[in-house]
Write a structure and sequence with these properties.
By secondary structure, the protein is of the alpha+beta class. It folds into two domains: about 140 residues; about 80 residues, Copper Amine Oxidase, Chain A, domain 1 (2-Layer Sandwich). Strands 1-2-3-4 form a four-stranded antiparallel beta sheet. The two termini are about 55 Å apart.
Length: about 250
């Protein structure tokens, strides 16, 4: 059974709602990526700072050694040299930061590639939505295409119906901002020889204009006496036909 316009509209609403949820979840993923990138930059900066401190300390050690040699100081070797211990601790911290930086870089690459293993549950769920987003986009495009074709077909049928109605009845009915406009095939002036109606409390009412003023006899006979709009419109159509073709 072909889908109706309401079915298509409902489906579009559902797809749009789902797409909105997925976009929100993707936004969370983007925030997570930004946070990881910031952590990565912070670790890089800290790593550079540690490297600079290490170089400064090595330079200071060299200067101290040179000074001791110049002053002919006797060097005493300690089993637990404080300078060596500090340098070793700095190297261990440097290696730790470097390993953490590699881990973050790997996590970012995995997230960007969409190949999530065991990063976090949220990241895993977000990445799984990427294919769902594409599927929904395609489904939405198909629905919009079907809806567009349906609307065009409806417009075509409405146009054909109006043309058939004009040919069969000799009048044309159109919507206005507050009611209806009826024009006539055999009217002498199509722009001014027309009737205006409005719906008031589920009752159709004829609005006064120059053309309706010229039809007081028809108004009294068919609307006042018999309350028949079909007879009123038919009588006017016949009147205009006779007037147009000089028929008695």
């Amino acid at each position: 059974m072909p889908m109706t316009e309401k079915d298509i509209a409902d489906q579009i609403k559902v797809l749009t709602s789902q797409l909105g949820l997925i976009k929100d979840q993707c936004k969370l993923l983007e925030d997570e990526l930004k946070r990881l990138e910031m952590e990565r930059e912070q670790i890089k900066m800290k790593e550079l700072k540690e490297e600079e401190e290490k170089e400064v300390k090595e330079h200071q050690c060299q200067c101290q050694c040179q000074q001791l040699a110049v002053d002919d100081w006797r060097i005493i070797h300690l089993k637990e040299n404080p300078v060596d211990n500090r340098i070793n601790r700095d190297w261990e911290h440097y290696r730790f930061l470097k390993a953490e930086n590699k881990k973050l870089a790997a996590r970012l690459e995995i997230i960007e590639a969409g190949q999530v293993a065991d990063i976090t549950r949220m990241v895993n769920e977000e990445i799984n939505y990427s294919s769902e987003i594409e599927r929904l986009k395609i489904a939405l495009q198909i629905s919009e295409s079907k809806r567009g074709k349906y609307i065009e077909e409806c417009k075509k049928q409405i146009k054909e119906l109006k043309e058939a109605f004009l040919s069969l009845t000799g009048c044309r009915i159109e919507f206005t901002s507050n009611g209806y406009k009826v024009s006539f095939l055999y009217a002498e002036n199509q722009a001014s020889d027309l009737l205006l109606f409005k719906m008031e409390n589920k009752e159709l009412e004829l609005l006064e204009n120059d053309f309706s003023k010229s039809l007081k006899t028809f108004v009294h006979r068919y609307l006042v006496q018999h309350d028949s709009y079909p007879a009123f419109i038919a009588a006017i159509t016949l009147h205009l036909f006779k007037k147009s073709f000089n028929v008695e």
